[in-house]
Specification:
By secondary structure, the protein is α/β, with parallel strands linked by helices. About 25% of the residues lie in helices and about 20% in strands. The strands form four sheets. The chain has a five-stranded parallel beta sheet with strand order 2-1-6-5-7, sandwiched between helices. The chain has a two-stranded antiparallel sheet with strand order 3-4. It has a two-stranded antiparallel ribbon with strand order 8-11. The structure holds S-adenosylmethionine. S-adenosylmethionine binds near residues 93, 94, 122 and 147.
Length: about 220
């Protein structure tokens, strides 16, 4: 899968993605990550990407022209692209919340283009350049880079071949339902400060273990 990120802080995204599983996903050519600096698409000599809001108010807004120019280069001539296999996504607290189901949906695509904001937000016309807006939760961050990294991480680990064992992402928290958490898991030692590993897990009987695990699924504390 190809993922492009538009940001004014490209190193934040590249540094995070050049470690651990995301690094290996790139080495294995399962993830083609390209990080673009929006400043490179500003045409004035100071490479300005922000300006004051019309009507006044605190802070600055991301300007529309550099983002439009960057998207035309990265996403192609038609904006937002008509193909369903390529989506331009704006990271914004105003967007739909990212869920595991959404991550699975995005993992089916060929290309994601993530637009990360800063300052007080975006010139409203930027919203018409994207296919969808995603929020990583009901709170406001200083910038969209963390949001972009969360999307990249949640989506990449669902791509076949990225995890050591693809089954790891099949049976886990949220994978069966948005309000269910994974069964409890244990590793050695068998007894720690008087707390024992449940005896059902020590039998070696796969059917019994599967039955025990099925009974252990619990409600997520935030479920309604
Ligand atoms: N004034 C904006 C509002 O009320 O909607 C918030 C702007 S925020 C300070 C700056 C940037 O951080 C946003 O444009 C967005 O790209 C990013 N951001 C903030 N919170 C986010 C969230 N929950 N999910 C995704 N991106 C977020």
């Amino acid at each position: 899968m190809r993922i492009d990120v538009l940001t004014i802080f490209p190193n934040m995204v590249s540094d995070y993605c050049n470690e651990s599983i995301l690094k290996r996903a790139q080495q294995k050519k399962l993830l083609d990550l390209r990080v673009h600096n929006i400043r490179d698409y500003a045409t004035d000599k100071h490479h300005t990407t922000d300006d004051k809001p019309y009507g006044g108010g605190p802070g600055m807004l991301m300007k529309v022209e550099p983002i439009d120019r960057a998207l035309r280069k990265v996403a192609g001539r038609t904006l937002p692209p008509r193909t369903k296999k390529k989506q331009v996504i704006l990271l914004s607290p105003q967007g739909q919340f990212l869920t595991q189901a959404k991550a699975r949906e995005l993992a089916q695509l060929d290309q994601l283009i993530l637009v990360s904001g800063r300052y007080e937000g975006f010139d409203e016309r930027i919203r018409s350049l994207v296919n969808q807006q995603i929020s990583i939760g009901p709170y406001v961050l200083t910038g969209g880079e963390l949001g972009a990294m969360v999307v990249i991480d949640a989506v990449t680990r669902l791509l076949p071949g990225v995890l050591g064992d693809d089954a790891s992402s099949v049976d886990e928290t949220f994978s069966h339902s948005p309000d269910q958490i994974e069964y409890p898991q244990y590793t050695r030692p068998e007894v720690y400060k008087g707390k024992r590993v449940p005896k059902e897990l020590l039998t070696g009987n796969h059917a019994d273990i599967a039955a025990w695990r099925k009974k252990q699924y619990r409600k997520h504390p935030s479920s309604i």
